[in-house]
Structures
1.
Amino acid sequence: MQITLASQPAAKVETEALVSYVFESENEKGTPVEGVIADLDQAAGGALARLAASGELTGKALEMTLVHFVPGLAAQRLLLAGAGKREKFGTAELRRLAAAALRHLRARSVKRMAFLARESDRGAAAAEAVTEGLLLGNFEGDTYKTDKKNGPLEAATLVGFDSAAAQSGLDRGRIIAEAQNFTRALGNEPSNLLTPRLLAERAEAMAREAGLAVEILDEKRLAELKMGALLGVASGSAEPPRMIVLTYTPPNPKPGAPVLALVGKAVTFDTGGISIKPSADMEKMKFDMAGGAAILGVMRVLAQLKPAIKVIAVIPSVENMPGGRAQKPGDVQIAMSGKSVEVINTDAEGRLILADALHYAKQLGATHMVDAATLTGAIVVALGGVNTGVFGTDDAFTARVLASAKSAGEKMWHMPLDDEYRELIKSTIADIQNVGGRWGGAISAAWFLREFTGDTPWVHLDIAGTAWLDDAKPWMGKGGTGVAVRTLVELAMNFDGAPSGK
Ligand code: BES
Ligand code: MN
Ligand code: ZN
């Protein structure tokens, strides 16, 4: 979708649909609409004021009022989106509103739209949020449909933005949203078309195009490196595993400067292995590579936005299958770090591949690590589909990640990781076991990862509940969400300074 800035008066914009928004407070008795909405109302001879007086235009969040052929407007339609309470309206709400408005129009086969920002929303951050919203809203997970009914919008004009700052916000928004959509598309790919080898090929192609260094470790190399935890998971599948390593090096690298490692779980399909999952909903387990896909999206952005910090992506990829060579409950595997692991449940595979990936990231020189993983059903029980679970060993670093999430508009919740939980993963026969029992399942999973992070400040994002939408929202289609991309971009971009609490 083409997105451009325009500065002509809104009433004169010729387009299929002009979108703007009204706040709830503007509908309270006696409170007149202000600014550009008042201008539109004037052009329309008071039609909008009458609409508000009718009670049909309340301004409630994401309420859509579509009016055709408004006199005085060059646009064929006027879509007034509800913005909710003015006090609660920020960039996250603006992003969502732009996405929902676009999807409302897309469902009506509109191809070209204009978005009129309110006077208070005209800086770089607002231009970025609107651009992101439009591009995210325009994404549909229908790759393999041969008959696509309502195709994407083709063009949008942002009215009311005309500064160089707004243009740079737009450019940044496009880079980030396109990467988030790249991540979403990977999450939606079926596992027959996205094996570990094919994911590695996609990562390699993306890295070459973006100008990132890339190395793909194959099964032979992984065996040389003694990644026993990862190889144990991979052994049940006819598809060989891969470890994808991408490196972004800043323009002026300083010796001794921090190195951020981003580690992403990429299980291209999780059957559970010998501890096989029930068949209901198993098809969803194609998205068990969402963490890895998010890290690839982040790297794609960093290649373009060029932060000051060096960033290494480490993405372990396997298919978790039962089979004649599959690992079995009770098996002991030796991780690359030398720790022995008793595999009580082969369905707790994510932590096994991450154990070797985290250790490897440290060996590559990471001074700070963040992993993203669809790790546990337990985090979905705890937080549902709203918040990503955040675990960390270093309070200052964890606070930075949480602040980055806040400013990126992604909801994340800090979970505990007290020492007392460590005993859940004690094993009789080995150093640790890979499951911690029924209670506190997301925490014992995080504790398992912690065993492989040593003293390196580390944050774990459990995205099992947030990386996939079972049902479309007004602002986003079904399927992969691309969660964590924006947060980790924010983290890397502001690594040296304080995160910018928008
Ligand atoms: N990939 C799953 C976690 C998951 C569950 C992601 C639901 C998205 C939605 C993970 O590999 C898994 O199977 N975890 C087990 C761990 C258990 C065996 C200790 C789980 O959560 O049930
Ligand atoms: Mn599993
Ligand atoms: Zn899994």
2.
Amino acid sequence: MTLPTPGARRAAPGTAVPFTPTAPLTSSPHATGAVTFPDGFLWGTATAAFQIEGASTEGGREDSIWDAFCRIPGAVVNGDDGSVADDHYHRYREDVALMRRLNLDAYRFSTSWARVVPDGKTVNQEGLDFYSRLVDELLAADVLPWLTLYHWDLPQALEELGGWPNRDTAARFVDYAVTMHEALGDRVKVWTTLNEPWCSAFLGYTAGAHAPGRKSPADGLTAAHHLMLAHGEAVRALRDRDPEAVLGLTLNFTVSDPVDPTDPADVDAARRDDGMFNRFFLDPILRGAYPQDLLDDVAHLGFADVVRDGDLEAISTPIDVLGVNYYNGGAVSATPQGPAGEAPAGTADPGGERADAAVWETRSPNPVPDGIHHHNRGLPLTDMGWEVQPEGLTRLLTRLQRDYTGPRGTSMFVTENGAAYPDVVQADGSVDDPDRLAFVDAHLRAVRDAIDAGADVRGYFAWSLMDNFEWALGYSKRFGLVRVDYETQARTVKSSGRWYAEVARTGVVPARGAGTGGSAADAE
Ligand code: FCB
């Protein structure tokens, strides 16, 4: 496999890049035929600790903000929580065996800070031991451990001291990162600091739709800055400990298209949408500067006082890998779509299926949301109500390469992509999920288009290895290549999983309609 070489890293230019809209792509050279990926392309799947582990009170673990959030009436669909989840804490050996049978090169997982440092300051050896056993199991199965330190589950003890809006949380994160590296750095070579700080900051502290459920535009902005500071300081600390480690973070992205590209008001709405979602993180981390247009947009929220001298140098510490999470983009306008509350015929409400849709209506994750309206384009929707828009991934990766990762010598991996659909279990227990298979197929073709256009994309992680706790939507949405029966904890490889196993084995996405492969057919 082709991991990035430490040493390719270059200094941040110190200037931000303005937003320029692009038009949706209408054709792809790889639309239907077999598609071969470069040698060494890494094939993986991803999960996160809180979504799969369960055992929330075992082995010395204490509450994370998600345990506390799940107890708030109405916060999570069905009152679901993470106490059992996929019971991965007890079944990790079986799950690693499953990865082997799926021919995976790599497994992206996260470690639970609340398991390792439950009270925010005292290390819990039992927690470390669990991850040590997991890593050993992965290495024995020849699966590369791709470790993420933070996938949204802050110890509740640290939230009670102010959470991410408290600058000290960044220092606590660096201590935790070093603790993990002391325990696992001899065996884990790839370290991701954060998963999707946009979600941690703006869903958690501005929309209140995710833990810890606060609703403050200023807190969201402050949290975002401190998350990035935590990332940069942790990269410095890990690099000092191990110059050969492959270090990075994962961001989630949208592709903001103005509904009417000839209308300056729509273009400005897209600029602001892109700004708070993408550039607010990309520019400090990869270019060493906040975009001036965003600083102007949020000036009334006191953001300038949060940023201290030296912060941007820390935040823009060179990284080897940018993890790219992509699910969909959006069409954005300065005016609402159709009469209030009514989507045009033939389309659905963009937030339709989301339990948090009501929250999003009353409180946007964008700290400056006025005059930004998302329109539905009539594209097919997943069970999340998210548009299926593979060409957006090609545009995203080529833009990232040109403006952000290319100038820094940073490689990209797609660290999450996938789809929720309601599975139908056949009488024989099998699950045929052509929609999920088609989703992954189309997005892999889009990745290949981006590689052809010069994007340095080295691997792809499907979200997710198996069905799991989908945050505020609880267990109601299934993203897995493997089905989990929550009554029995039985794992069943879906037809998408069998297909993906064959892609991982061969490095080739077969021609459309060429069958679902079979190397994991006997996996159940
Ligand atoms: C991403 C999260 C991941 C999962 C997918 C569907 O935003 O990182 O945990 O919930 O969405």
